[in-house]
Amino acid sequence: MAKAIHPHLDRILWNEDQISLRVSQIAAQILHDFPAPSPPPVFIGVATGAFLFLADLVRKIDLPITVDLVRAESYGSGTVSNGDPIISSHLKVDVNGSHVILVEDIVDTGHTLSKLIAHLKLKGASSVSVCTLLDKTVRRKVDIQLVGEGKFYQGFECPDYFVVGYGMDFAELYRNLPYIGVLKPEHYS
Ligand code: 5GP
Ligand code: MG
Ligand code: MG
To answer: Residue span of the signal peptide, if any (predicted)?
Structure first.
């Protein structure tokens, strides 16, 4: 029997099977782009939203990779980015001279990624790729400038709704839903 959808959601956009399949496809693409024995990339997840995507993705990458997290905050508890995210938790892994893959839950205006990419460039990464599960391209405000031979991996094009689940929150809730869906407006206003 199908599991009931969370009552605060209008509908599901991507279910567990669809997410899992897409994560496998992205992992295969990354393995193809970073073939052994070239130095394996450093995976840097953007906390907290990317934690499930990062966990599922790296388990499909059979290379001696390193994994770290950064934290960027721009939202508080609203649904609209304030345009000037701050990096509030820094890296432990030294990325100098490494190929970095930044793992994001969703790219919206692009401000968060731009700030993080600039930060990694400053830290000496020889390339910065972006791997985002969702991409809300219609809301982009700044172009994403990759570094070096960096690549852009995208799971799904996301329609212009506020979505939650599979790591993504509203006011820190709903991150544990195994699927991604549209939050009913009455639950964020
Ligand atoms: P940006 O800086 O690109 O505008 O926003 C990036 C961050 O805002 C994402 O990493 C994510 O944490 C958050 N965000 C953007 N759109 C959504 C959305 O539809 N749902 C949720 N839960 N977070 C979002
Ligand atoms: Mg994020
Ligand atoms: Mg959030």
So the answer is: none
Quick: pLDDT tens for 68-122.
Answer: 999 988 755 566 666 778 888 889 999 999 999 999 999 999 999 999 999 999 9
Among candidate residues 56, 105, 108, 169, the one labeled active-site is 108
Residue count of the chain: 189
CA of 2 to the centre of ligand 1 (A): 28
Provide ipTM, 2 decimals. 0.97
Q: Where are the domains of the chain?
A: 9-33+40-187
Distance 37 CA to ligand 2 centre (A): 31
- Order across the sheet with 180-183: list the strands: 9-14, 180-183, 163-164
| Fold of the CATH domain 9-33+40-187 | Rossmann fold (3.40.50)
Which ligand 1 atom sits nearest the alpha carbon of residue 85? 2
